[in-house]
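I'll show a record.
***
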Amino acid sequence: MTPSLVFDIETIPDVAGLRAAWDLADLPSDEAVAEAAFERRRLKVGHDFLPHHLHRVVAISCVFRDADGVRVRSLGAPQDDEAKLIQDFFRTVDRYKPQIVSWNGGGFDLPVLNYRAMIHGVRCPRYWETGDNDREFRYNNYLNRYHGRHLDLMDLLAMFTGRANAPLDEMARLCGFPGKLGMDGSKVWQAWRDGQIASIRDYCETDVANTWLLYCRFQLINGRLSQEEYQGEISLFRETIAGLQGAHWAEYLAAWPG
């Protein structure tokens, strides 16, 4: 079995980077820097979503499935810095060469991780391999949009046109899964300011659970899983999260009819 790594990230404004890149060093607080950056974006593009390279990663959550079973966790510890989280992610890719799966990972998560890995000097030769050193990666690598080692499930279902993109939360609910619980990406910055890193990691974990379940459904419709195998994967995942600690998993299971 080729290992599968389904992942999701949560980010906040990189206030230190904004001070340096956008000449905001004179502002008195992180909140003032972020608000000045948001206002600049609203004036320029009509919304306050920052460019990818100015997002700081504060959580990376994964579902990892291999022959030994399925695991769900956030990488690192709550106190770990961004470089450590990114290093943990790319070390997993480098070691296992998994099929990586995301929802809008090509549009957001991976570009952010690419930029932040470059800022911190995080190495991952396998991720960047395109066949020069390993011919196995020439026609199937992580970087080419139409290759299979990274599956952006949202992008594929939309037939690679942004006009057809669907939100993860809505697709999860339409497929009978719990969807988002208690938080969304727009609330992460405030939660971080309030010291709620545990809540951010919990939210990220339930998001990646939704992505994993949608990936299982996708493998059913494309024929890689039979109906029986699909039901087995769903049951295994339900049993796995039932054995995990955390109120967010109890809430998730309560919201998941089955």
The two ends are 27 Å apart (CA to CA). The chain has a mean pLDDT of 96. The chain has eleven helices and five strands. Residues 83 and 126 are 18 Å apart (CA to CA).
